[in-house]
Write a structure and sequence with these properties.
This protein has 1 helix and no strands. It has one helix spanning 51-76. It is elongated, with a radius of gyration of 29 Å. InterPro entries: DUF6480 (IPR045512). Keywords: Membrane, Transmembrane, Transmembrane helix.
Length: 77
């Protein structure tokens, strides 16, 4: 795999001062597309949430909904 430099080439980029600076009023060169951008991802789990945390969240949601339903029934009666 070859490495592509994200830096512009000074001899092919207009408007760059020596050292790579951009003078006032000049638009800097655009960023090119880099196929190797970003870190290599070695740990990518294929599934979403684990079963235990999802079950805990569902139980809490059901308990809270049951509480508010019971509270509404008490206020009506």
């Amino acid at each position: 795999m070859s490495h592509i430099s994200p830096d512009p080439e000074p001899e092919r980029s207009s408007g760059l001062e020596p050292g790579g600076g951009v003078p006032p009023g000049e638009t800097p060169p655009a960023e090119s597309s880099m196929p190797e951008a970003g870190p290599r991802e070695t740990h990518n789990p294929p599934k979403g949430w684990a079963k235990a945390p999802m079950a805990v969240i569902i139980v809490l949601v059901v308990l809270i909904a049951a509480f508010f339903l019971a509270y509404a029934l008490v206020l009506i009666l």
